[in-house]
Amino acid sequence: MSNQEKQGIRGAVSHLPEHGPINEEGREILLSVKNVDITFGTGEDAVKAVKNASFDIFKGETFSLVGESGSGKTTIGRAVIRVNPCAAGEIDYRGVRISGKIPRSLDREVIRNIQMVFQDPAASLNERATVDYIISEGLYNFHLFENEADRVRKVETMINEVGLLPEHLTRYPHEFSGGQRQRIGLARAMVMEPELVIADEPISALDVSIRAQVLNLMKKFQQEKNLTYLFIAHDLSIVRFISDRIAVIYKGDIVEIAETDELFNYPLHPYTRSLISAIPIPDPQLEKNKVLFTYDPSVHDYSVDQPEMTYIGHGHYVYGNKQEIEAYKKQRESGERVKSITILQPGETMPELPEVEQSEGAEDFLVTPIHDTGSVWYLVLGILLPVIGLILGLIFKHFRHKRNYKQCKKGAIIGFVILAALIALFGIFLILAVI
Asked: How far does Cα 111 stand from its chain's mean position?
């Protein structure tokens, strides 16, 4: 760590204030994500998983982050608990920056106040530890009990609150069902008495009959303990009934933020409309006649006018350029509810979906052959036989074997460098021999 970084940590706030900042509406901002970029990898292999994400979470509310798989939802959640570093921007908790380098005392307070419930209840629990130790681990690390009797009382109280029995404490995670394991994960988080809980798709791995039980349990904890939730999900039908506000994310960009009723009545961004359109209808006949609204990214022209998140009133934020924002404002001010689901009447036929034109190189991973593995043997071949490696690499490039092409290219470059060095060395020896 450099001296400048050490000085920055020394000058940073070492403890959290009692309350967070208050906005214009008089609501306390508990968590604030400001222009956050999160990048994985370096150089050519760098992938920007989250781009310029910004939102506030108010104390006591359930804020849901919704999007399809790979959109960056979990990445943001893991950045809040300081697992994923931010490439740009910052994350504030109670008005104090908690991203990047912070003092150890502040780090411990953040861990204590922000807990996470993970998506996979099997993978997130230590299979070698008993349930008693799993729930008690946070209590041990932060010494949140007066004596052994107090620790046992807290653990037994919590195991009862999540719907399990004290005799379950001596068992191991593999002895429980998926729903029971998720209850254990919830107990592990709640025993720390956190203020903010990040729930990363906590019910997606559970049976439908168990989902309502876990959601009701989470709502009960929120009412009793004044909890705040960042609820991460991909299904709008679930978050509709538990969320106060919803943010929709698409490929790392947050495209829309609004209160729940506002978002479902006036989904302005086409991607939000596509997610609402995908919600199943309980009636089989209506579901059969439903016409899905398909999102086509090519409808946006951002070549000149760049998009940005803009407030359009009614607690509603939308991502778009100036022309799109004007259209969104006009549509919202008209007061007409936006229709995302169309049901075909008897006799009507399903309209043909328009073909989406793929931009060159934009979705190469969809057409990449299955044998494009990037094997290390192509690298070795390029080093030993650089000319053959280069020719093979060009063939791979032609057939879109991107990983194989990179390995051959890298090996050929190394091979030519080694060959040039050997020729130069031979030339020097030859000159010395002649002299």
From this structure: 19
